[in-house]
Amino acid sequence: MDKKSIRKEIMEKRSKLTWEIIKEKSHIIEERLFNLEEYQKSNFIFSFISFKDEVHTHEIIKNSLNMGKRIGVPVTVIKPRKLLVSELKDFEKELEIGYYGILTPKKEYQRILSPNIVDLVLVPGVAFDVEGYRVGYGGGYYDRFFSSLKKDVIKIGLCYDLQILSQVPRDPYDIPVDLIISENRLIYCKNRNT
Predict the structure, then answer these.
(1) Per-residue pLDDT at 17
(2) For the chain, what is the HEC assignment?
(3) pTM attached to this predicted model
(4) What per-residue confidence (pLDDT) applies to 164?
(5) Low-confidence ranges of the chain (pLDDT < 70)
(6) What's the pLDDT at 79?
(7) Domains of the chain
């Protein structure tokens, strides 16, 4: 299947999840993440802010801040297509609805930092395969962002089991994630450098 068909099929399946199920699965994923040595050792985490039926990251972000982690969230630049790292200090106060209806830092709370500060990234996606390749939403923002990071940054895909496929289509510029966490699985991807 091509990326477009995968997007349509998986997003359709995901849209059938109730808010209760999303919360329950997301909580399990959060626990698995917090138990990871890679997470515990990290200092500065770049996380997507979930919207609609994605794995719910709001609690992950709030709880990480409470644990003393530094958190960066995306500021989307439409032209050229890229993500900036903005440090978030207060989830409740500093965000507003931005592009595509996704929460984004308000102008006065944007603290733009170099991607070099990031040591762990929580990655969204429509579908992932066991080697860490992903089908995103089609903008290429995360692939561009990955190429701006230091080589040893750990990239963790957060998704539901229904989003894990045996293989997804790959393009030469696609950069795989290192780990995938779902409600039932923790996958260390084969291509991992370490």
Answers:
(1) 97
(2) CCHHHHHHHHHHHHHCCCHHHHHHHHHHHHHHHHHCHHHHHCCEEEECCCCCCCCCCHHHHHHHHHCCCEEEEEEEECCCCEEEEEEECCHHHHEEECHHHCEEECHHHCCEECHHHCCEEEECCCEEECCCCEECCCCCHHHHHHHCCCCCCEEEEECCHHHEECCCCCCCCCCCCCEEECCCCEEECCCCCC
(3) 0.94
(4) 97
(5) 190-194
(6) 86
(7) 3-188 (3.40.50.10420)
